[in-house]
Amino acid sequence: MAVGLSRPSCNPPPLSLHVRDLDDEVNEDVLRDLFNVYGPVLQARVCRDPGSQVHGYVDFQSVADAERALDALRDTGIRGKRCRIEWSHREPQLRHESHGSTVVKNA
Predict the structure, then answer these.
(1) What is the 3-state secondary structure (H, E, C) of the chain?
(2) Residues 6+ away with beta carbon under 8 Å from 71
């Protein structure tokens, strides 16, 4: 039997962008400064997973700001390297809290 967290019946609109294929020199400050031009950035995170490319997440306060940033930066580069920017389908709130899925199995 699997038990999960209770979730609202409707999903909130995405407020986060996922930035793939970042240059190794890009950090949170670089992302925040670049995306903050399009609206207030709540958080910028860069992930450096061993064996994979550097990627990041940018959390916005509003959907309109995130859409504006996506439209403006989609086909550009960051620090001279072409990046892929798309909607993040992860829930930003879950990344900041210690909640997650819980699976309970009968022994």
Answers:
(1) CEECCCCCCCCCCCCEEEEEEECCCCCHHHHHHHHHHHCCEEEEEEECCCCCCEEEEEEECCHHHHHHHHHHHCCCEECCEECEEEECCCCHHHHHCCCCCEECCCC
(2) none
Q: Which two tokens stand for residue 13?
A: 């609109």
**Whole-angstrom distance, CA of residue 92 vs CA of residue 83:** 21
Distant-in-sequence, close-in-space partners of 52: CB < 8 Å, separation ≥ 6:
none
**Torsion angle of the four alpha carbons 46, 47, 50, 52, in this order, in degrees rounded to the nearest 10:** -90
Beta-bridge partner residues of 20:
84
The candidate with the shortest Cα–Cα distance to 36, out of 68, 6, 14, is 68
Report how far residue 63's alpha carbon sits from residue 81's, in angstroms, rounded to the nearest whole number.
26
Give the type of residue at 22: L
Summarised one tens digit per residue, pLDDT across range 18-66 is 999 999 999 999 999 999 999 999 999 999 988 888 999 999 999 999 9
